[in-house]
Amino acid sequence: MKREILADGKFKVVAVSRDGECPALDFLTDQRSYADTRSLLLKMLKEVAERGFGHIPAGWCHEVDKRNGIYEFIKGDLRLFYFKGKNGEIAVCTGGVVKKGQKVNKAAVADAIKWKDEYVAWVKSSEGKERK
Q1: Among 38, 91, 108, 126, which residue is least crowded by beta carbons within 10 Å?
Q2: pTM exceeding 0.85
């Protein structure tokens, strides 16, 4: 597992990747549709990296799974899922979707939870190696 930096400033916004697979980065760089909105979403991530969550509009983010601490960045129809990270990372992005209706995409949230669980285990194992 690796971290891909999406935005760097006072804080870091990163994406998780494994074996060359990085769903969040793939989602953000997909040029087939919503290219302008994806660009604005990247600008939002840069703003979050510079200022933190305390200084951004409430409408930019929403908690979608309280039990597992999964949130989404919102820009138009696009949703980029993330959880709050450690080690100076303010958000760890896991993937995104185009929202088609009122309901949260449960499959995308389940994927975000899996990525978070794997990331947390990876961070714990990395911290253990650094202490030795």
Answers
A1: 126
A2: yes
Residue 9: name the closest of 59, 40, 50 by CA. 50
Tens-place pLDDT, residues 36-59: 999 999 999 999 999 999 889 989
Determine what percent of the chain is predicted with pLDDT higher than 70: 95
CA–CA separation, 41 vs 69, rounded Å? 21
Buried b (16+ CB within 10 A) or exposed e, 16-32: bbeeeebbbbebbeeee
What are the structural domain ranges in the chain?
2-131
User: In angstroms, rounded to a whole number, what is the distance separating the alpha carbons of residues 4 and 1?
Assistant: 10
CA distance 16 to 64: 19
Q: What is the CA radius of gyration of the chain?
A: 14
